[in-house]
Design goal:
Layout: H1 17-23, H2 41-60, H3 67-77, H4 84-91, H5 95-108, E1 111-115, E2 123-127, H6 131-142
Antiparallel strand pairs: 1-2
């Protein structure tokens, strides 16, 4: 499910990989206080998810994206055109959340609304050429080390 954000990613405030490492040091496994004594699998999953999303945010900030936006772009990119309903289902996100992403992407000029071929009440979205530059930066960042 998509995370709720209190504020969007600010590319000008991007943190370098070195700054990230300094502000997020690895816990010392020899320190008993650094390693939880109880083995709560659900908390561990939550913790890993939060850490992964934070790291993705740092890596994608130069492209002006956060982890959730990158996921949405990736889902749209997986098909030539996709409906908001399909995006909501694939992302396990409420339709209102997907709608806000679509509006944000439209404002950036990254997606176009296309009339649905069989349902006049619906529409599909597709990525525009303007999205290519952002995708190139994000793809490059996803293959480099933080």
């Amino acid at each position: 499910m998509m995370r709720h954000r209190s504020s969007p990613v600010n590319p000008s405030a991007a943190v370098s990989a070195e700054d990230y490492r300094q502000t997020h040091p690895k816990p010392d496994a020899a320190d008993p206080a650094a390693v939880p004594t109880d083995e709560n699998v659900l908390f561990a999953l939550w913790s890993v998810g939060r850490a992964a999303a934070e790291l993705l945010d740092v890596m994608l900030a130069p492209a002006g994206l956060d982890a959730d936006e990158f996921a949405m772009y990736s889902l749209v990119l997986a098909r030539d055109q996709v409906t908001p309903t399909e995006l909501a289902r694939w992302a396990s996100a409420p339709a209102t959340t997907v709608s806000s992403y679509v509006k944000r992407f439209e404002k950036r000029g990254h997606v176009d609304r296309v009339p649905h071929p069989t349902d006049r009440r619906s529409y599909s979205i597709r990525l525009t050429d303007a999205r290519t530059a952002v995708g190139a930066v994000a793809a490059q960042r996803s293959t480099s080390e933080p």
